[in-house]
Structures are given as structure tokens and as C-alpha cells.
Write a sequence for this structure.
């Protein structure tokens, strides 16, 4: 075993060069001060709004000022209205809600169901848009 230890130690000395590696690391560039708008009064909006629902129909609706969100199954229209206004800083005219039933799925002999989820269609005041969502994808 002593013979093999001799070969291992030579390889370690040749491949282990901390000074060369530290010389190759570049210093990070300083970040320019870009103003970021943070909404401070969002409170529990992250518990209500799950995500933006991306589909062909939701893309068509977004061009007319209506946006579709996946929301918590326990959320109501008033909570969704307040959450969208707090997060995106827009004025909501109306909220329509739909409970989407889960579908039957089968993998081999095992059958099951996907979760039920709630969809909210939010209509904004005329002329307002939510930027940053997947528009026209």
C-alpha cells in the first residue's frame, strides 16, 4: 500500500494549486443603482395569488384588460381584488371565480385525481395593464 500512497501524493501536489485558481477569479462588477419598486403593503397576497394562468384563452383576454390567475381554493372575490390591487398597483373593476375540478389520471394500475383549483378572472379599469406577465406568448 505504501507504493500507491506515493503516487497519490504526487498527483495531489501537481493538481492542487490554490494560487493559480485565486488569480483566475475575477472581481464582481459593481451593481448599478436601478430603482426597484417594491410594494410594501402586500401582506397576505402571496397566500391568495398562486400564479398567472397561462393559456391561449388567457392571452386573448389579457389584450382586453382581463387577467386570469390561479388562486387559493379558500380565497373569495374580495380577497383576490385586494391582493391584485396591492401587488400590481392597478384598479380592479370586477372578479369572476371558477372552481376547476381535478381530472382523473391513471398510471398503470394505479388511478387517482389531480387537485381541484380555483381560477379568478380579474377585469381591470379601462386603459390599465399589468406589465411583467406573459403577454402575447
Amino acid at each position: 500500500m505504501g507504493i500507491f500512497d506515493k503516487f497519490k501524493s504526487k498527483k495531489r501536489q501537481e493538481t492542487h494549486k490554490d494560487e493559480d485558481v485565486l488569480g483566475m477569479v475575477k472581481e464582481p462588477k459593481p451593481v448599478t443603482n436601478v430603482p426597484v419598486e417594491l410594494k410594501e403593503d402586500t401582506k397576505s397576497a402571496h397566500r391568495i395569488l398562486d400564479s398567472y394562468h397561462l393559456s391561449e384563452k388567457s392571452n386573448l383576454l389579457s389584450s382586453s384588460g382581463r387577467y386570469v390567475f390561479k388562486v387559493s381554493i379558500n380565497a373569495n372575490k374580495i380577497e383576490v381584488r385586494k391582493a391584485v390591487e396591492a401587488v400590481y398597483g392597478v384598479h380592479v373593476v370586477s372578479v369572476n371565480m371558477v372552481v376547476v375540478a381535478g381530472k382523473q389520471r391513471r398510471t398503470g394500475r394505479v388511478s387517482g385525481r389531480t387537485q381541484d383549483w380555483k381560477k379568478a378572472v380579474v377585469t381591470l379599469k379601462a386603459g390599465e395593464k399589468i406589465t411583467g406577465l406573459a403577454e402575447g406568448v
